[in-house]
Amino acid sequence: MTTFTVLDHEDVEWFRAADEMPSAARGAAATLARRIGLDAYRSSEVALAVTEAATNLQRHASDGALLLRVLRTPEQAGVEFVTVDTGPGMADVPAALSDGASSAGTLGIGLGAVDRLADAFDIHSLPGRGTVMAAQFWARGAGAAPTGGVPSVASGVTRPISGETSCGDAWAVRVDEGGTEGSRPSAGGSAPPAEPAILAMLCDGLGHGPLAALASEAAVTAFRRSTARHPEGLLRDIHAALRGTRGGAVAVARIEPGRGRLLYCGIGNVSGVLLGPESRNGLLSAPGIVGQQMRSLRTFELPLKPGGALVMHSDGLTERWKADDLPGLLRHSPAVMAGQLLREAGVRRDDAGVLVVKGAW
Q1: What is the pTM of this model?
Q2: Do 355 and 338 contact (CB within 8 A), yes or no?
Q3: Quick one: 40 exposed, middle or buried, by C-beta within 10 A (0-12, 13-18, 19+)?
Q4: Pick from 235, 196, 230, 233: which is nearest to 219 by CA?
Q5: CA-based nearest residue to 311, from 342, 288, 287, 289
Q6: Tell me: the pLDDT tens digits for 214-235?
Q7: Those residues with Cβ within 8 angstroms of residue 51's Cβ, 6 or more apart along the chain or in another chain
Q8: Where does the PPM-type phosphatase domain lie (predicted)?
Q9: Which CATH code for domain 154-182+193-358?
Q10: pLDDT tens-digit profile of 147-192?
Q11: CA atoms of 134 and 47, how far apart (whole Å)
Q12: Rounded to an integer, what distance in angstroms lies between the CA atom of residue 6 and that of residue 361?
């Protein structure tokens, strides 16, 4: 039976490109690594990698930021950082990763050091437009080879509106191990083997700031606690949980790789796109505000395209982005895809959130 890995993500802080950014990011990374249980040697490696990445942003990017966060499995925790910039990009990524490629006063060890120190590393760069990089760091002994990280079928990024520290957008993903909904016994009377499914949710809390964040946090909690397995049932549970809050726009997807289909149901201004290598299908949401006024629900079904991805995002990203304008995007990890879409389509006048699910079909 196919199994899927989904990591819990806990965002810690966004660091904007500024004079103090490398030292601030370095200190926060070292503290975070020690807090989750990495030893002193591994914590220093995390701090070194973050410093190189932050310095690179400071020196070369016209608008760069670094997101620091915790990744968790049931057994362990790791550190991840994601950098997003609208700088000059790199025409030759392999050359930039080689030792000695660093310039203009960086550490002189190049981004190749980040690649070597990380357990998982991914980068996507568009010359003249910008670069997104993601790196994972898990516990390992001094001198040990990279573990390969913990590949997850889903990742996302959220960013608060300029001037706020709380983000009203949130996302969550979990695996339904209970089997494919609608499975029926075969002619012989036995049920077909259970196939796991992936459930994904994105919430855009109404407005922005702490009250919007409370609404989106309530949506995440309800999504994780609900026993419903269908998008409509999950939306009803989230609707009940958001009563008394500002409410929000919410979309829920159920991905069934075993049956090759996607089920999608949304209320409000959350965008869903099912990407294929040569296709793009928009997913419709109904008008309304979850937690306040929600019309009758409708679930849409689409076939999954091999090598494709599901993208869900709030209206903090414009809908004008095109995968064709981001060559090679589908070959990258969900974290890098999400960061690249944030860079390409994110706006500063609203909270922004984007979730990507891929690699399961």
Answers
A1: 0.92
A2: yes
A3: exposed
A4: 235
A5: 342
A6: 999 999 999 999 999 999 999 9
A7: 22, 23, 25, 26, 107
A8: 144-357, 184-359
A9: 3.60.40.10
A10: 899 989 999 999 999 888 999 999 999 999 875 444 444 444 455 5
A11: 15
A12: 15
Domain range summary for the chain, segments of one domain joined by +:
8-137, 154-182+193-358
Asked whether the predicted pLDDT for residue 100 surpasses 60, the reply is: no
Question: Would you call 88 exposed, middle or buried from its count of C-beta atoms within 10 A (0-12, 13-18, 19+)?
Answer: middle
Judge whether 290 and 247 are in contact, CB under 8 Å: yes
Tokens representing residue 60 in the block = 């070369």
Pair 203, 170: CB distance under 8 Å: yes
The class level of CATH for 8-137 reads alpha beta
Joined together, the tokens standing for residue 176 give 């339904």
Give the residue from 264, 269, 333 showing the smallest Cα distance to 300: 264
Type of residue at 15: F
Amino acid at 31: T
